[in-house]
Amino acid sequence: MRATPEGFLYRVDMRLRPWGGVGPLVSSLDGYLGYLRQDARLWEKQALLKARVIAGDDALAADFMQQVQPFIFSATPAEVRTSVAAMKQRTESSLAARTHLG
Length: 102
What we know:
By secondary structure, this protein is mainly α. It contains four helices and no strands.
């Protein structure tokens, strides 16, 4: 990756996409919904709570928002608590390891 003389506008980790480093850079609506249905982790679904349309086709955006709603709220409260606690534990472990390494 190269920076222009002006620097970077955004740094994007291309691994943070459906199916990670092996997934397509861009998904169709049907492809993304399939990912949510079959492979998405709970935190990925939870991130959609903050999803907002800021540009593009209004009809497509409304269709997307309507179709992802069931995935956002599909987990039980117990699943959410367990997932959040596990993520918190992983984060704390990672921070502790970094602090220990110095």
